[in-house]
Design a protein that fits this description.
Strand content: 5-15%
Distance between the termini: 27 Å
Helix content: 55-70%
Strand order of the largest sheet: 1-3-2-4-5
Length: about 425
């Protein structure tokens, strides 16, 4: 009953905290809103009106330039490009129309007209052909994703090859037919699709890492604060110190798990509702199999409890909150090492390093669910790793409780972990 009293008090402090409430629901609502956004946008092409206006503007210019003849429907035009054949080698724009579907071409009679079209925004870009394999590209501004120049280079090379084949008496269409032959294949995956599972595993590793760091530090701070204001003297007279520590740690674990379930649950549910609207493009992040989520929940919470007890012990070693980082530095270093090792081995889930990490309690919280999602793992391996993790949690819990009990009786200078561990063994 005393444990439940401590648990309820500590858990209440977590969930009533304004930062906890705001963070939880802000993240959950924002993620859900983002995933519902496609339902409120009309993604169909509505650029026909603007294209017709552009054509009218171009028609009103002097006779030095005109719109290219062709089958381009102005209602489907989404971009306009200008071209000036200074070398006089291109008789038609068939290659360009095929390579730039939906683009309206403005044929210019000199470079000055082409520059004017680009500068006033009538054309998105302009190309001056200097020779069979030489051209200049005119841009007003260059964006990060602009690819007009690269496409034009490919088209120019294709036109050059056609002329060379025709001069040599070779049927260019036959050459293209041979070169464009497609090999048909079908991948039949009997195990796990590592590529498709990579990104949601990456995301879950970051989630559990942040959860451990955030709530572990909060637990250590809570323990140290009670020592610094000496309220622990009142608590230990009515409640066993072990009950206090277990109540704090488990309350923090439940609060952290609840926050993760709310945020991640809202995101997953929102995506499943809107999956068809998104066209499945976020499957790599949010289409997580049930067995992976179950494994992540078990080992994630287990790993959190393991480190939470260690953070509680580190908090009991010091009497001032400013000394927490110093005492918990070793724990944080271990978490960081595991984090980077696991991320580095995501592409090799069946490697020896990942197999070893999946059985160690300091790393199984992330390594094992990655092996389940991306590698080949037997059920006995999952069970053995789970048993080791549970036994380690119990062992570290009692160790932390012993250090916590020792720390409640000492004030002033911080207690070194090695000395506390030695005293615990002797006892």
């Amino acid at each position: 009953m005393k444990f439940l009293t401590v648990f309820q008090f500590e858990f209440g402090n977590y969930i009533k905290n304004k930062t906890y409430i705001i963070t939880t629901f802000f993240l959950g609502i924002v993620l859900a809103a983002i995933l519902f956004l496609p339902r409120f946008f009309n993604v169909s092409d509505t650029s026909g009106t603007g294209s017709e206006t552009t054509q009218e503007e171009m028609s009103g210019e002097s006779g030095s330039a005109g719109v290219s003849d062709g089958d381009t429907d102005s209602g489907d035009v989404s971009e306009a490009l200008a071209i000036y054949d200074a070398a006089g080698i291109w008789g038609d724009l068939s290659f360009l129309r095929a390579a730039y579907p939906g683009v309206e071409w403005i044929v210019c009679e000199n470079t000055q007209d082409l520059e004017a079209y680009v500068e006033n925004g009538t054309a998105d870009a302009g190309f001056v052909i200097n020779g069979e394999l030489s051209y200049d590209c005119y841009l007003l501004n260059r964006g990060l994703t602009d690819s007009d120049s690269e496409v034009f280079s490919a088209v120019m090379l294709q036109a050059y090859q056609q002329r060379q084949y025709e001069e040599a008496g070779i049927d260019y269409n036959k050459v293209m037919e041979i070169n464009s032959a497609v090999v048909e294949s079908q991948e039949i995956i009997l195990g796990k699709d590592t590529l498709s599972n990579y990104w949601y595993c990456y995301m879950l590793v970051i989630v559990i890492f942040m959860m451990i760091i955030l709530y572990g530090t909060m637990i250590a701070t809570s323990v140290t604060t009670e020592k610094s204001n000496r309220s622990i003297e009142v608590l230990v007279t009515s409640v066993d110190s072990s009950v206090l520590l277990f109540g704090k740690v488990i309350a923090g674990a439940v609060a952290g798990a609840l926050q993760m379930v709310i945020v991640l649950g809202l995101a997953l549910c929102s995506y499943q509702i809107n999956r068809n609207v998104w066209g499945g493009m976020l499957d790599m992040l949010l289409d997580i199999p049930g067995e992976v989520l179950a494994t992540f929940a078990f080992f994630g919470i287990g790993g959190y409890l393991f480190y939470a007890f260690l953070y509680g012990a580190m908090g009991a070693l010091v009497s001032k909150t400013e000394d927490i980082n110093k005492s918990s530095g070793g724990v944080q270093l271990a978490i960081m090492i595991v984090y980077f090792i696991v991320l580095a081995q995501l592409g090799n889930p069946d490697g020896m390093l990942m197999k070893v990490a999946s059985f160690l309690p300091v790393s199984s919280y992330s390594a094992m669910f990655i092996r389940v999602a991306m590698g080949s793992v037997s059920m006995w391996e999952v069970i053995v790793s789970g048993v080791i993790l549970i036994a380690s949690i119990i062992g570290v819990g009692f160790l932390a409780a012993g250090i916590y009990r020792m720390g409640t009786l000492r004030y002033g200078n911080p207690i070194k972990f090695t000395k506390a561990l030695k005293a615990f063994r002797e006892k």
